[in-house]
Amino acid sequence: VQLQASGGGLVQAGGSLRLSCAASGGTFGPYIMGWFRQAPGKEREFVAAINWSGAATRYADSVKGRFTISRDNAKNTVHLQMNTLKPEDTAVYYCAADLRLGAPPTRTSEYDYWGQGTLVTVSS
Question: Which of 30, 48, 56, 95 is such that its CA lies 20 to 30 A from the CA of 63?
Answer without folding.
Answer: 30
